[in-house]
Amino acid sequence: GVGARTTLTTEMVKEDNDVPVPKWLRDCQGIHDKGHDRALRDGNVKSFEEWEETALIWRAFAFAYALHDGQYRKSGAPYIIHPIAVASLIRELGGDPRMIAAGFLHDVVEDTNVTSREIGEMFGAEVRRLVEGVTNLSKVDFCNREDFQAENFRKMLNSMAQDIRVIIIK
Question: Where are the domains of the chain?
């Protein structure tokens, strides 16, 4: 599947001078790359669960990085800078690892051929629900006052009712 074509190596990120990867994310990469046993032994994590959560964040970044490769913002900057900024903000606001992962993945379903089902298979049901909520919220038309009526309001409320964290990620 999808995971096989989006393997990210440390070298790929190091070679990409256009993408500033924050220290906290590099730390996630190092912990992920060490593996659970070594990260525990070295004191990088206190439990298998903590290692899994750190690895989830790195895998979400790696997946988004690979899928957004070659995409650029209107400014000409690599698109991945936006998901990095979103995930970093979520982290600063105290978001949990699944929210941070969804921050990296929030545009993947809209901008690539990856389905929300594949997101769920790779990152779990909770991340899938968050990404779906952001995708549904993105369909709400905030620009046109006449169109912002019952249907758009219903979509927004439905996304929020599923998981209020969707609003933070968006």
Answer: 19-169
pLDDT in tens, 17-37: 678 889 999 999 999 999 999
Q: Which residue has the tokens 């046109």?
A: 144
CB count within 10 Å of CB 82 equals 17
pLDDT in tens, 101-140: 999 999 999 889 999 999 999 999 999 998 988 777 665 5
Active-site hit among 111, 118, 121, 146: 111
Would you state the structure tokens that stand for residue 51, as one six-digit string? 């290692």
Among residues 18, 96, 110, 151, the one annotated as catalytic is 110
Catalytic-residue membership of 121: no
Q: What pTM did the predictor assign?
A: 0.77
Q: How does DSSP assign 125-158, residue by residue?
A: HHHHHHHHHHHHHHTS--S-TTT-SHHHHHHHHH
What tokens were used for 168?
Answer: 């933070």
CATH domain 19-169 topology: Hypothetical protein af1432 (1.10.3210)
Does residue 132 have an active-site annotation? no
43: left (phi over 0), alpha (psi -120 to 50) or beta: left
Contact predicate 75/51, CB 8 Å: no
